[in-house]
Each structure stands twice: as structure tokens, then as C-alpha cells.
């Protein structure tokens, strides 16, 4: 026998040396050769013994494993997936005093493996998805609390890549709500958690009713394939052993007592449960037993590799601007399965190119498990599909996450240097994706024109314009889908529901609810992605008794104007929400308050359009419908003075602001100040209207002045703040309006009516 062992050892070492000479596909692969002569000889001994199926070597492995992790019982199976299936079946056993029933709700994180989920469905329960914390990548305790209902009876805790959630809080929730717990520890064998209860550190996988582990080739220890289920009671242990092998009695610790109840049946083939065949081979038991001797050494290397890579990365400024490593949960000591990494906001659109860069340079990589599992097609096929966009933590991991191997042998300094250099050598060159909401409105359209005119859209600065047809911003689900699709790094929020003063006065509830919903959804989702954001407010926020000229402080000097107060209050709420997001989350959210905007692609209806557009619409259409002499009717005496802001000038301010403005208080922007009479005369001249201007003094003038002090903007923006001369801006507005009317007249009736909805 000694000669055979020597021969096997010599052959094994020779082949290993030959393999090292062969060029590998990856210099830094996910899996390494983690076994040696001892494992080979132990498996050869099994084969030579002739006992291949489940027997003493598996039993020895189970005993050693239970002692290693600190549980009373361990049952070996043929894979980690089988371990999950067996454990869930055991939780459903009616022989257990506390067990799951068909239809019960079982909580599970949105980032999980397929066979973490499938046993829930296969046993007839209802999975309830819970979002994850993108920093720890494990189930979010805050979200978990929200998902617990009277129907919740169980939870599958998936310990991701060596890390865990806050087990103290979770186990308190488990106790309070009497939940059954399956810990999927397939990627975290050897990770510890300290509950801070005086009991010291314990292995993950030993807190719940059942803990499952995997011995796949690339995991913490391996038997090629294989897995283990741990439990705490003899009844559970016997149930696992019976289910593992057909549901028969052969492996029960109380076999004789059970078999004595059925004297008329052959005890060798006595079936008492609905079982499976999930048995491991003896060679797997032998290999895993040897591997258990290496577990602490392997995991010490994993921890050391993670620490050294983290220190090397954190010493480089490029790391801090491009990516972050997974954060260990408090009181968790992870045996790192890999280096889980999240790209910074705004870089997700480059993930595919970045992973190709890693692969081309010899660094193998993988998604973090299956990403957001709700995006997998199987969820649409076998479950009532929940919207994956409603799980923002999982979406971050899905769109910006990946991992590479931590390895179970301590890496040479040269390998650490190679890995970190490769990770940081990709040319990210900040590719901003700027999302503009309200793209169909006057301000959004102006931003689109300025971007086109000034060549602001480049390979590294992508502009995305979204309007009503693209997403209903009142619907959080639609907003999440929009952000998931476009992955913006910056947002210019122009969208609002606005109409005539009469309509807003008549329906204040609807205008309040719609605007609040839009603003809440956009800011909430932008905050989750840590986007930079600038929102457009409105001068209707100004209280009616303000003293002019007014600066930004006047916005909060009283209640908004009564005529459109619900819209004004919604904008006031947006301003305050912006401040709160800055204060609580340290985000770069800001606001701009424009005054009296005008320009192309806006509203030109007399009853609802802003001053200049309303006059342009009246003047161009004067005398065209009823044959009467044309006249330009103007509300009031014409004496009040107003600052008139061209929409493209506002667009330039917003483009500057989304890159540069970082202020908790809003910034006012206004244009050239003219009397209403001067505006009317300029419109009459530009439109070449032949009729007279008629001032309707039966209508109120309003304040004679509403002068806004823009000194703050001039101080902050400097040369970036410039105004288009009023006559030039007016000429361009009139030209656009006349062209729009001409186009509408040449369209089919149905199309024309939609196109011209705000032209008449």
C-alpha cells in the first residue's frame, strides 16, 4: 500500500507541475487547485476499499463538520443546492411542532442564488422579496421590518460572499415574530458573527433552525461537489437523514424502534417520508474531511488577501472616485469568498466594458450571485412578477456590481500589485449621463436645443430627455424603471403639472398631489443612486406681500400667492425636501427659481401661457378667425414691470447648475426688466400685427414691480450667466411659433389637434 501511495503522490505532483507550465486562460482565476496529496490518497483509499456509496467516511465528515462549526448535528448531501432543498423540506415537515405550511410567506433577499429561492416554491410557499443593503450586499434589516406580515412564517438568510446582515437585529425579529430560519451559508463557511450577548463569536449558519453549506470546487473547502445541512435537534437530524435517502429508515438513529412498528414490512426497505436521493459519495466524505483540516488556514489567507487588496486600493485616489469594496457588517468577521465591488454612481453604463477589460487582462470575474434575481426570466414564468426596479439596493448590485476571487492561499505581493493595477487601470473618464425630466415642456425643450446648438452631447457626456410618453413620474415604479434604464449620474428636474390659474385654483388637490408625487419619486430614486440633482422651482412661491427687489430669502417670507397656492406650496415642499436630502444624506441637490419664462415649444394659449408667449399667440392669431380688425388685448394698464427670462438662458443656467451648484438654498434667475406696455409693443412690431394694442383696465395689474435680485447667481456663476437680448429672444420665439402653426395646418386633423394643443 505504501508503494501505491508513493506512486500516486509522484504522479499527482508531476501532473500538477505540468499544468503550471500550461498557459492558463486567466492569471487571476475564480478557482484554484485547493487540494493535494492528502485528499488524493484519502479518495484513493476509498476507491480501493470498494465502499463507494454513503458510509463511514461521510459519517466521519459529518461528525468533524459539526464539531468544527459548533452544532450538534450535520447531514452531508451531494451539493449546496440539495442542502437548501433538504432543509426547506424539513421546515415543512408536519412532524415538526413548528413548521411551514403551503401558502405561508417566506422572506428572501432580492440578491440570492437560484436554489436559495426554488425550494420555497417547490414546497408550495410564497416568496416575499426583501431589498438588500448595497454596502453589505446582504438583506436590509429596515426593509425586512416592512415586509413582515401576519402571514410571514419563515425567512431564508443568504449570507453573501462571506458577509452577513445584522444578525443581532434579525434574530430579535425572528424571536419577536416566531419565524423559522434557514441560513444559506454556501458562500460563507468560516465567517463569524458576535451577537454581543456574551456568547462570543459563532459561525454563520448556526443561528437558525437549519444552516446550509456548499463544498463546490471554488468554495471555502471542496469535495468537488457536496454540501452539508446543520441542525440543532435529533428529530430534525433524523428527518434530514431519511429524506436524503429515499425517505427510508436505514439511517435513522432510532431505526430499530421505528421498524418495530411495521413488523410485516422488510426493514431494509421501509419508507416513512417523501424523500429524495441526495446522498454524497464516500470519496466526497473523505475529501471534505481532509479539507476541514485546512479550513482555518484557507480562511486566514482569504482574510489576509482581502485586507491587503483593500489597503492597496484605498491608497490610490483612483479607487475612491471609481469603486467601493463590500463593507463588512458590524460584528461580522467575514471569511471573504471574493472581492465584491460596486462601481460608483454614473459608471454603471461602463460595467460591461470594464469587465471585458478585466477579462482581457487575465482577471476572471462574475456577477454578484445572480444580480437582482427578480430580473431573471424564471420569476416571470413561475411567479407573479414583482417589479425589480422597486428594489433599489439590488438594482445597484445588478447594474454596478461584480466580484473576483479572494483565493484560499496567501497571494504574493506581485499578484496583489497586478490585481490592483488591473482594477484601476481602466480609463473610466467620467461619463456623465444627465437625465432631463419634463423634456416636452418649454424648459426641457430649451435644454435640448442648447445641448444641440453648443455641442454639449459627447461620448463622455450623454443627455437623456424624458417626457410624459416615456414615464409617468407620479408612479414610483415607472420612475425606478426610468432610472434603471438610463442610470443617470445627474438630473435636471423640470417636470411639473401646471395649467391656467383658473384651473389650478379650481382643482388645488389634484395639482398638489400630482406635483408632490412627481417630486417625491424623482428625488427619492435620484438619492438612492446618489445622483447630482437640480430642480426647477417657481416664482409663484413668492408671498404676495414681499418687498421688491426680492432675493432668495423672500421665498419663505410668507404664504405663496393665493391664486395658484397649491402649485406654490408643492414647489415650496420641493425646496424643503431638497434641503432635507442634503442634510440627511450629504447629497448635492440644489434648486433654481426662474421668473417669467418665455420661448419656443411652450404654452401659447391666452388663458394659461406666460406673459410673452400669451401675447405672441394673440398677436399672430389676431384677426384670423372672425374677420374683425385685429387687435392685441392686454390685461391691465400696461404699467407693471416684469423681468422676462428666455427659456434658453434658463437652460444654460440649469446646465451650469447641475455641474456646479452646491447650495442648500435656492438661486434666483431672472431676465431683462420691461413694462408690460413695452412687451406688447415689441410683440406687435415683431409679429407685424396691423391692429392696435388695447389695454383692458378692467383686469387687475398686480404688483407694479416683481424685481428679483440675481446677485447670488452672478456671484456664483460669473461669466456663465449671460442673457440673450430681449428682442433677439422674442424674434426666435415668434419665428418658432409661426412655423409650428404652419406645420400644424398641414397635418392630418387628429395629429394636428394633438400637435397644436398648446398653440391656440
How would you portray this structure in words?
With 760 residues, the protein is an alpha/beta fold. It has 3 domains: 54-255 and 263-295, 3-Layer(aba) Sandwich (Aspartate Aminotransferase, domain 2), CATH 3.40.640; 296-424, Aspartate Aminotransferase, domain 1; 432-755, 3-Layer(aba) Sandwich (Rossmann fold). Strands 1-9-8-5-4-2-3 form a 7-stranded mixed sheet, with helices on both faces. The protein starts with a helix and ends in a 5-residue tail after the last helix. The relative contact order is 0.08. It comes from Chromera velia CCMP2878. This is NAD-dependent epimerase/dehydratase domain-containing protein. InterPro entries: DegT/StrS_aminotransferase (IPR000653), Epimerase_deHydtase (IPR001509), NAD(P)-bd_dom_sf (IPR036291), PyrdxlP-dep_Trfase (IPR015424), PyrdxlP-dep_Trfase_major (IPR015421), PyrdxlP-dep_Trfase_small (IPR015422).
CATH class membership of the largest domain: Alpha Beta
Share in helix: 40-55%
Largest sheet report? 7 strands, mixed
Which CATH-level-2 architecture of the largest domain? Answer: 3-Layer(aba) Sandwich
- Rg of Cα set: 34 Å
Strand elements, count: 24
For this structure, what is the CATH homologous superfamily of the largest domain?
Answer: NAD(P)-binding Rossmann-like Domain
**Which residue ranges are poorly predicted, with pLDDT under 50 across at least 5 consecutive positions?**
751-757
Helix count, DSSP H or I runs of 4 or more residues: 26
Domain NAD-dependent epimerase/dehydratase: 434-663
InterPro entries: DegT/StrS_aminotransferase (IPR000653), Epimerase_deHydtase (IPR001509), NAD(P)-bd_dom_sf (IPR036291), PyrdxlP-dep_Trfase (IPR015424), PyrdxlP-dep_Trfase_major (IPR015421), PyrdxlP-dep_Trfase_small (IPR015422)
Protein name: NAD-dependent epimerase/dehydratase domain-containing protein
Pfam families: DegT_DnrJ_EryC1, Epimerase
Amino acid at each position: 500500500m505504501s508503494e501505491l501511495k508513493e506512486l500516486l503522490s509522484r504522479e499527482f505532483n508531476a501532473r500538477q507541475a505540468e499544468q503550471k507550465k500550461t498557459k492558463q486562460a486567466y492569471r487571476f482565476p475564480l478557482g484554484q487547485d485547493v487540494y493535494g496529496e492528502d485528499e488524493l490518497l484519502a479518495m484513493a483509499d476509498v476507491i480501493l476499499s470498494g465502499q463507494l456509496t454513503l458510509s463511514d467516511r461521510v459519517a466521519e465528515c459529518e461528525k468533524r463538520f459539526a464539531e468544527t462549526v459548533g452544532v450538534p448535528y450535520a447531514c452531508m448531501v451531494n451539493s449546496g443546492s440539495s442542502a437548501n432543498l433538504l432543509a426547506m423540506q424539513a421546515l415543512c415537515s408536519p412532524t415538526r411542532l413548528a413548521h411551514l405550511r403551503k401558502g405561508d410567506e417566506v422572506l428572501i433577499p432580492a440578491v440570492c442564488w437560484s436554489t436559495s429561492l426554488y425550494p420555497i416554491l417547490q414546497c408550495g410557499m410564497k416568496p416575499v422579496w426583501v431589498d438588500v443593503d448595497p454596502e453589505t450586499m446582504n438583506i436590509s434589516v429596515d426593509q425586512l421590518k416592512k415586509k413582515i406580515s401576519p402571514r410571514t412564517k419563515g425567512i431564508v438568510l443568504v449570507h453573501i460572499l462571506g458577509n452577513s446582515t445584522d444578525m443581532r437585529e434579525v434574530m430579535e425579529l425572528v424571536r419577536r415574530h416566531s419565524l423559522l430560519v434557514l441560513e444559506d451559508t454556501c458562500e460563507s463557511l468560516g465567517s463569524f458573527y458576535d451577537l454581543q450577548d456574551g456568547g462570543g463569536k459563532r459561525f454563520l449558519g448556526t443561528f437558525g433552525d437549519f444552516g446550509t453549506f456548499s463544498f463546490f470546487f471554488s468554495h471555502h473547502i471542496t469535495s468537488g461537489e457536496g454540501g452539508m445541512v446543520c441542525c440543532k435537534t435529533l428529530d430534525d437530524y433524523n428527518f434530514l437523514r431519511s429524506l436524503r435517502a429515499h425517505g427510508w429508515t436505514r439511517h435513522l438513529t432510532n431505526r430499530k424502534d421505528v421498524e418495530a412498528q411495521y413488523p410485516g414490512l422488510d426493514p431494509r426497505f421501509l419508507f416513512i417520508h417523501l424523500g429524495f436521493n441526495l446522498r454524497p459519495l464516500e470519496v466526497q466524505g473523505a475529501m471534505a474531511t481532509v479539507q476541514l483540516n485546512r479550513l482555518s488556514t484557507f480562511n486566514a489567507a482569504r482574510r489576509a488577501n482581502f485586507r491587503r487588496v483593500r489597503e492597496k486600493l484605498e491608497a490610490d485616489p483612483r479607487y475612491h472616485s471609481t469603486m467601493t469594496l463590500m463593507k463588512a457588517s458590524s460584528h461580522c468577521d467575514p471569511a471573504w469568498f471574493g472581492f465584491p465591488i460596486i462601481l460608483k454612481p454614473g459608471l454603471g453604463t461602463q460595467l460591461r466594458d470594464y469587465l471585458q477589460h478585466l477579462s482581457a487582462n487575465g482577471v476572471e470575474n462574475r456577477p454578484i450571485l445572480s444580480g437582482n434575481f427578480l430580473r431573471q426570466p424564471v420569476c416571470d414564468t413561475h411567479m407573479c412578477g414583482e417589479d425589480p426596479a422597486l428594489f433599489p439596493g439590488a438594482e445597484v448590485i445588478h447594474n454596478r456590481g461584480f466580484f473576483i476571487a479572494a483565493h484560499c492561499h496567501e497571494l504574493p505581493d506581485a499578484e496583489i500589485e497586478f490585481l490592483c493595477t488591473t482594477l484601476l487601470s481602466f480609463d473610466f473618464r467620467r461619463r456623465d449621463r444627465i437625465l432631463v425630466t419634463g423634456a416636452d415642456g418649454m424648459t426641457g425643450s430649451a435644454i435640448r436645443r442648447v445641448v444641440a446648438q453648443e455641442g454639449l452631447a459627447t461620448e463622455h457626456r450623454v443627455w437623456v430627455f424624458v417626457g410624459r410618453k416615456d414615464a409617468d413620474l407620479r408612479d414610483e415604479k415607472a420612475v425606478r424603471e426610468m432610472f434603471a434604464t438610463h442610470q443617470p449620474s445627474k438630473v435636471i428636474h423640470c417636470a411639473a403639472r401646471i395649467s391656467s390659474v383658473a384651473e389650478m385654483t379650481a382643482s388645488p388637490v389634484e395639482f398638489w398631489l400630482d406635483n408632490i408625487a412627481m417630486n417625491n419619486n424623482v428625488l427619492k430614486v435620484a438619492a438612492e443612486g446618489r445622483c447630482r440633482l437640480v430642480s426647477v422651482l417657481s416664482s409663484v412661491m413668492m408671498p404676495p406681500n414681499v418687498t421688491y427687489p426680492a432675493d432668495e430669502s423672500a421665498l419663505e417670507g410668507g404664504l405663496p400667492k393665493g391664486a395658484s397656492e397649491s402649485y406654490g406650496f408643492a414647489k415650496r415642499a420641493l425646496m424643503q425636501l431638497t434641503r432635507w436630502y442634503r442634510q440627511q444624506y450629504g447629497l448635492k441637490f440644489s434648486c433654481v427659481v426662474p421668473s417669467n419664462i418665455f420661448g419656443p415649444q411652450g404654452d401659447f394659449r391666452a388663458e394659461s401661457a406666460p406673459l410673452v408667449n400669451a401675447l405672441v399667440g394673440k398677436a399672430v392669431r389676431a384677426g384670423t378667425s372672425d374677420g374683425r380688425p385685429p387687435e392685441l388685448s392686454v390685461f391691465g394698464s400696461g404699467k407693471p414691470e416684469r423681468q422676462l427670462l428666455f427659456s434658453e438662458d434658463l437652460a444654460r443656467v440649469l446646465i451650469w447648475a447641475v455641474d456646479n451648484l452646491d447650495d442648500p438654498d435656492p438661486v434666483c434667475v431672472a431676465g431683462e426688466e420691461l413694462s408690460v406696455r413695452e412687451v406688447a409693443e415689441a410683440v406687435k412690431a415683431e409679429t407685424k400685427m396691423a391692429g392696435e394694442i388695447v389695454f383692458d383696465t378692467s383686469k387687475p395689474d398686480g404688483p407694479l414691480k416683481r424685481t428679483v435680485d440675481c446677485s447670488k447667481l452672478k456671484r456664483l456663476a460669473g461669466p456663465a450667466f449671460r442673457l440673450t437680448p430681449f428682442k433677439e429672444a422674442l424674434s426666435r420665439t415668434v419665428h418658432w411659433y409661426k412655423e409650428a402653426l404652419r406645420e400644424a395646418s398641414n397635418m392630418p386633423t387628429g395629429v394636428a389637434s394633438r400637435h397644436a394643443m398648446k398653440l391656440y
